[in-house]
Amino acid sequence: MRIAQIAPLFEAVPPKLYGGTERVVYSLTEELVAMGHDVTLFASGDSVTSAKLDAPWPRALRLDPDVRDWVATYNLLVEYVYRRKDQFDVMHFHIDYFPNSLFSRQNVPFLTTLHGRLDLPEFAAVYRMFPDVPLISISNSQRRPVPDLGWAATVLHGMPKDLLTPQPVAGERDYFAFLGRISPEKGIERAIQIAGTLGVKLKVAAKVDKADAEYFKESVEPLLAHAHVEFIGEINDAQKPAFLSGAKALLFPIDWPEPFGLVMIEAMACGCPVIAMRRGSVPEVMDDGITGFIVENVDEAVAACGRLDMLDRARVRGQFEKRWTSRRMAEDYLRVYQRLIDAKAPRAAVA
């Protein structure tokens, strides 16, 4: 199958540090190539892939100080892909609503995976303009604000089986981990509170976006002065196995409808249990009592931390291998691709 994967331009594929969408695109692309498909990846020029790389922009926008209007680069990307559309059996976009108008007016099958939140009214208005565009949700809970869109399937994320693996730990696991991004909805303040209540160190490996810089300075930075908090900053994939394997648990006390939460399966890959708030996709991703505990509030999170010894870290890893590999994700997508190709074929013949 000739497949185009169209990635965001903000980060390279794979991302050098933080970047959930780009990480998923990389895992999917590499797995499709490994399965024998002819894949072209449209992404920034500093991306690395075993697929064919076609770069409409030379480097990730996050690292390009010359770009002041990122929307212009996305218009370029969409037109760039459009001019090559007839070279593919299916085109898979990961750039939200940008392809909808142009690609709805041509015959090559395409689909878009929505990676972010959909509970904003302007998003609903835009997507409802294109009710026939095949959309992929990354959890069933992601659909709740807009259940009436053209949903083709839910495909849960996956990652390479051996990218992150459990590492041996010398001595006792004496800290909790917080990994990902610092923002109000991600729950860093609650994580600090949970660890502080238990008298356990919290190691924070997280990115601070420009959009969250004020929140970080005013609300989070003062909390980092607590003796039990160690702020590490962003870490890469090579650093994650040791970081997560050495933790008692990953604290994921979110306060928003998380569409997926890739960090949860990253922890599982390392055999690290997760303490997560029941928000968004959490009940779909977590196997409560096996890969960690789902809780309703901080008090329940504190209590759940006292039950971590009940969990088998080898079984946590086993659930990752069973549910969350990129091979399973790629197989799920291939079924959707084929269905879309089959549905388009009669129309194309008639035309």
From TrEMBL:
Domain Glycosyl transferase family, residue spans: 170-301
Domain of life: Bacteria
Signal peptide range: none
GO molecular function: glycosyltransferase activity
CDD domains for the chain: GT4_AviGT4-like
InterPro entries referenced in this protein's UniProt entry, alphabetically: Glyco_trans_1 (IPR001296), Glyco_trans_4-like_N (IPR028098)
Residues covered by the Glycosyltransferase subfamily 4-like N-terminal domain: 18-121
Residue ranges of the TM segments: none
Gene3D superfamilies documented for this protein: Glycogen Phosphorylase B (3.40.50.2000)
Protein name: Glycosyltransferase family 4 protein
Species this protein is from: Limobrevibacterium gyesilva
Lineage: Bacteria, Pseudomonadati, Pseudomonadota, Alphaproteobacteria, Acetobacterales
